[in-house]
Amino acid sequence: MNQEIKDYNxxxxxxDKKICDLLSSEINAFLHEAExxxxxxxxxxFLDGNPVAGYSKxxxxxxxxxxxxxxxxxxxxxxxxxxxxxxxxYTNAEQINIDDLKRWLEKAxxxxxxxxxxxxxxxxxxxxx
Length: 129
Fold this sequence. Notes:
24% strand, YdhG-like, Aspartate Aminotransferase, domain 1, globular, DUF1801 domain-containing protein
């Protein structure tokens, strides 16, 4: 695991650390080809320089985010923001359904919008896959 991400996880409360450790472990295992790093102060995984998945500690939960998640057509994911992102929030590790997570990660690999070039395109997203 990326040391910065390990440090991020270790800085969380006991229950939030369990959530973060489980998410990072599963994301690393499933998206083994992805680059992972702390980006805007949160763990994020990138495929070909494009952010696809990550998580962040919120006041009352840990938010799992998929940058192209609104395109996944998954009822468990809630729309987030004005682009194509979708999220799932957790308050304990037992809420994480590994089968759902793996399905979402597969979709994150295969369904992507070009966030890498969003500034260059002045906020216009183009679907890559």
